[in-house]
Write a structure and sequence with these properties.
The chain is an alpha+beta fold. It is globular and about 45 Å long. 30% of the residues lie in helices and 25% in strands. The two termini are 27 Å apart. A hairpin with a 5-residue loop joins strand 6 and strand 7. The site of zinc ion has 5 residues, from helix 2. Zinc ion binds next to helix 2.
């Protein structure tokens, strides 16, 4: 397994829609394992393939509480097939370091995807897991959580993010 480099906004691949995965093979399983290791090391609760420079519809998510055993979900070609309610949770993103904001999401979702055995699965999620699915599937459509902010907040984000990036450059 290997740690992958996480790309940061405004890397162009983060704004592009990813390609559907044609079939689950060994190279996709290796990519999923490497993405999971990278996510846990960051640490984060979700990671989408375009964030590590691979334009494929694959995400890994683990929202299990820290004091419980890990529950890794690897979802290939995930799609939201039903949604209900509204929720505003504070979100962050490994591709947008140092910035957090509340974003409007559905409170409950049903997601259909292929697992790493190529079997079709459906999963219902609420709370943090529902937010994570929506956040990660957005990545596959080239959408970041900051794209879902109001125009005013997005402008504030751009100014603040530039400062965050400048500070990181100075530290390097
Ligand atoms: Zn993200």
């Amino acid at each position: 397994m290997a740690l992958l480099r996480i790309l940061h906004y405004p890397e162009p691949i983060l704004a592009r829609a990813s390609e559907p995965v044609a079939g689950v093979d060994e190279s996709l399983k290796t990519l999923a394992a490497d993405m999971a290791e990278t996510m846990y090391a960051a640490p984060g609760v979700g990671l989408a393939a375009p964030q590590v420079g691979v334009s494929k519809r694959l995400v890994v998510i683990d929202c299990s509480p820290k004091d419980e055993a890990p529950r890794l979900i690897a979802a290939v070609n995930p799609e939201i097939v039903a949604r209900e309610g509204e929720d505003f949770e504070e979100e962050g993103c490994l591709s947008v370091p140092g910035y957090y904001a509340r974003v409007s999401r559905s409170a409950w979702v049903k997601v259909r995807f292929l697992d790493l055995d190529g079997e079709e699965r459906e999963m219902e999620a609420d709370g943090l897991l529902a937010v994570a699915f929506q956040h990660e599937i957005d990545h596959l459509d080239g959408i970041l959580f900051v794209d879902r902010l109001s125009a005013l907040k997005r402008n504030m984000f751009r100014k603040k993010y530039k400062k965050i990036m400048d500070q990181q450059q100075e530290q390097m």
